[in-house]
Design a protein that fits this description.
Layout lengths: L12 H8 L3 H15 L4 E11 L28 H13 L4 E6 L8 H14 L4 E5 L5 H10 L3 E3 L6 H7 L5 H13 L3 E3 L2 E3 L5 H12 L7 E6 L16 H14 L4 E4 L8 H9 L4 E3 L12 H11 L2 E2 L15
Parallel strand pairs: 1-2, 1-9, 1-10, 2-3, 3-4, 4-5, 6-7, 7-8, 8-9
The structure holds S-adenosylmethionine, 6-(5-methyl-2-OXO-imidazolidin-4-yl)-hexanoic acid and iron/sulfur cluster (SF4).
S-adenosylmethionine binds next to loops.
Length: 332
């Protein structure tokens, strides 16, 4: 019988740094081996994002086009209607998505009519048979429990970067507050989606520390999105140098090695990547993408481009509600 490598929460900075900084092809090879032990290497989960409330956010996240204080082209929109959201979810399902993530430009969830509407959206979207994820800012245990009871599957709240670098990017809420929302999420038995962004001016040590924070959690986040900064005109990070594919690959491969069971999501930044670059990310352990020509407010490759990519690589989209671990007995 095959034994799977242990899932560890006692990683050190030194260990992760050695993994991250090793020669790239060795890193990819190691990550790919782990990936095959825990997941079907030809399967990719396709997810859809929908911005249910856009722009006008009071926070100062330097990367974000939805922060009210920056002068960007984002058009402010109040909460969408329940019908519009359910229609978008139906469309997402019919184009092959199995996870539907609703995002709101809120600092935190408030107990008001909008929240009641969001609960109804969750109820109706989950009844379509989709995994429902919410990313609505900070949330209390009580609010998260209500969302879970309505059918929410996952809550996304990114730690974004290392604790040290975080202060250079966001001042209106603290790293600890982020961690608290993640704890609240775990306390009510929702799955956690948490990752970050590279390309904001952080060092490789900051990237390693961000991964360390996630991998040291007693229970790893079930889902880890790795975003490349989409630099948007009008935000303080508008002139950041774009990250290279090699940097994305290093991040994804390291995340895969230290959090073998988690879904590693190749998230924002795919429009700047070649198909060959994306293939390297899948080889290194990424097993999910966001599909559709818009993320929340910024562009993403079209569904037809992704269909071509999947056909070329022989990838297939994950079937709905497959939470079971991959049966490794079929692998050589
Ligand atoms: N307002 C909520 C919050 O901040 O948690 C939810 C929505 S927010 C847009 C979700 C995540 O998107 C952020 O935590 C950040 O990691 C990512 N994000 C936002 N703008 C981005 C950008 N320009 N490039 C890459 N990722 C971005
Ligand atoms: C995540 O880590 N990336 C997604 C999802 N979680 C919510 C969001 C990316 C947003 C990119 C900028 C935008 O489109 O506004
Ligand atoms: Fe607001 Fe979220 Fe954007 Fe920060 S990332 S400004 S909290 S929408």
């Amino acid at each position: 019988m095959k034994t799977l490598p242990q899932i560890r929460s006692d990683w050190t900075f030194k260990e992760i740094s050695l993994i991250y900084n090793q020669p790239l092809l060795s890193l990819i090879y190691d990550a790919s081996k782990i990936h095959r032990k825990f997941h079907d290497p030809n399967e990719v989960q396709v997810c859809t994002l929908l911005s249910i409330k856009t722009g006008g956010c009071p926070e100062d996240c330097s990367y974000c086009p939805q922060a009210a204080r920056y002068n960007t082209d984002v058009r402010i929109h109040n909460l969408l209607s329940i019908e519009d959201v359910v229609e978008a979810a139906r469309h997402a399902k019919s184009s092959g998505s199995t996870r539907f993530c609703m995002g709101a430009a809120w600092r935190e969830v408030k107990n008001n009519k909008d929240f009641d509407d969001v609960l109804e959206m969750i109820r109706q979207v989950s009844s379509l048979g989709l995994e429902v994820c919410g990313t609505l800012g900070m949330a209390t245990e009580e609010q998260l429990r209500k969302m879970k009871n309505a059918g929410l599957y996952a809550y996304n709240h990114n730690i974004d970067s290392s604790e040290e670098f975080y202060g250079d990017i966001i001042s209106t809420r603290k790293y600890d507050e982020r961690i608290k929302t993640l704890k609240n999420t775990q306390n009510v038995n929702l799955t956690v989606c948490s990752g970050g962004i590279i390309g904001m001016g952080e060092s490789s040590d900051d990237r390693i520390k961000m991964l360390l924070t996630l991998a040291k959690m007693e229970k790893h986040p079930e889902s880890v999105p790795i975003n490349a900064l989409v630099s948007v005109e009008g935000t303080p990070l508008e002139n950041q140098k774009p990250v290279t594919t090699w940097e994305m690959v290093r991040m994804i491969a390291t995340a895969r090695i230290i959090m073998p069971e988690s879904m590693i999501r190749l998230s924002a930044g795919r429009t700047e990547m070649s198909q060959e670059g994306q293939a390297l990310c899948f080889l290194s352990g990424a097993n999910s993408i966001f599909s559709g020509d818009k993320l929340l407010t910024t562009p993403n490759p079209s569904v037809s481009e992704d269909e071509k990519l999947f056909a070329e690589l022989g990838l297939f989209p994950r079937s709905p509600h497959k939470h079971k671990k991959y049966d490794t007995s079929t692998l050589s």
